[in-house]
């Protein structure tokens, strides 16, 4: 059971935290000394590295490994990150890091949403949105998302609560 100071009730499961979207894929990040900058809080580059780690862990969990990318000579490369640092994190903090696939057009683009919550405090400390484009791994040229990727990603696109409420569908 997770116990948050000043929280009304303890949380039994990380999925019960106040996530922006339903059905998060969650990894726990324990802040180590190599994540800390000269201000004694987590360096912004550590957050970006954690985004990459969580995204790859999620891709592996849904059935797409780096080997699939290499075999198909494809890459999902970052076009843009939008990062929001809400509260600082410090040495030995434990952070629940979640990701969702929120858009895929079956042509070229994929988007992920990220949210990091302090396990100790139960509060969001960081969130991000990343736009990816599919490229040929060997040349870097943009190309269509392979059918295997579209099929797997389509099963895992998560709609925001407003879209779900309105009954709109967003698919890969």
From TrEMBL:
<protein>
    <submittedName>
        <fullName>Acyl-CoA thioesterase</fullName>
        <ecNumber>3.1.2.-</ecNumber>
    </submittedName>
</protein>
<dbReference type="InterPro" id="IPR029069">
    <property type="entry name" value="HotDog_dom_sf"/>
</dbReference>
<keyword id="KW-0378">Hydrolase</keyword>
<dbReference type="GO" id="GO:0016787">
    <property type="term" value="F:hydrolase activity"/>
</dbReference>
<dbReference type="InterPro" id="IPR050563">
    <property type="entry name" value="4-hydroxybenzoyl-CoA_TE"/>
</dbReference>
<dbReference type="Pfam" id="PF13279">
    <property type="entry name" value="4HBT_2"/>
</dbReference>
